[in-house]
Amino acid sequence: MYISMADRTGGRKNSGATGTQTLPGPGVAFRLSPVILWLGIVSMATDISSESVSAILPLYVTGFLGLSTIAFGFIDGLNQGVSAVVRIAAGWASDRTGHPKRVAVAGYGLSMLARVGFLFAGGFWAITGIVTGDRIGKGIRTAPRDALISSAAQPEHLARSFGVHRMLDTVGAATGPLLAFLILLFIPNGFSTVFVVSLAFAVIGVALLVLVVPDRRTPRTAQKPDRARPPFTWSQLKDAGLTRLLVTAGILALLTVGDGFIYLVLQDRDSFAVQWFPLLYVGTNVVYLALAVPLGRFADRWGRIRVFLGGHGALLACYLLAAVPFGGLGVTVACLVLLGVFYAATDGVLAALASRLVSPDKVATGIGAAQTVVALCRMAASAGFGILWFAVGAPAAMTTAAVGLAAALVAAAVLMRTSRAQEAGA
Asked: What domains can you pick out in the chain, each with its CATH number?
């Protein structure tokens, strides 16, 4: 079991069923590492690239290309989960080599190359192949990048440090859809222009990562660079706390509908103009941007598990509002706010939880395992929701998802009950 740095930094240490974690102690001031700042800027540029495309993809697939919701569900499932194919392998490679930056560069580079394909794509299979390549790149880069953040962060302020990174990341996630909106506003059906802008920002992100971010090595690997490591097996992550976290995250992710579907439900109900569609992504990401750091800090102080489950409660409320027969600006904005709260309360917090439940030389692998479970389950959720929408319609499909998520939250609360009782926060 990983023993935290609290004994040497003055933080308070809590041990429980979910592993050892560090809580803020007296006199431990928060300091942001330049590594985290630069990684946030890299993610910001990359998210401008990826989210400008994601913001138009639902309309591009169902409107411009004229494909069905089943087809979009398949593509959105790939967008949500195909990265899971390589996340653990990338995390293990990062841990084994001790050079997480090198693995991250490979992932960011592959996503950049995939952006070129959007300039020439014109059908279902072409889009499927490009999305697959892009998401595999995301799967390769995510765990090594988060391992860099974990190694550079103060243990007492881990979730807050992840929150700072996610805040910068979300600046890009909000800017990308805004750029897509402006392009479509002035250039009707200007999807190709969006793809060109996306490629440009992907190149900027890779250049910054290569030229500015240092290649930090994990402490144990730095001490024993020639240490032989066995191939990855799931038994390396066999820990009661981590296992419960993976099961809990997986159950909840199975009922997590992709953003694109939620926005299509809102657009289908309210019938607002197509060019306004990307602004839905902007609204969600602005809320995420505003709350990523405060909720990360709150999670460090009051409990990471509590905040993680609370974020899914916000998602449940979003489903219920999306399912009601009446709409309007107020209901739509409320949905976007709740969706932003969900991401701010779960994204960085999940990585912070996973990183404290493994030993220092397995941080990227542990984070990758958690992200893999979530990604695979969300892929299944998106594909299933597309079929459900096609079969029963948007309102009934949304209601079904809400009922399922409510039941999943009850199961998750039971699974994590022991951890919450034994720890002051997780």
From this structure: 33-215+234-422 (1.20.1250.20)
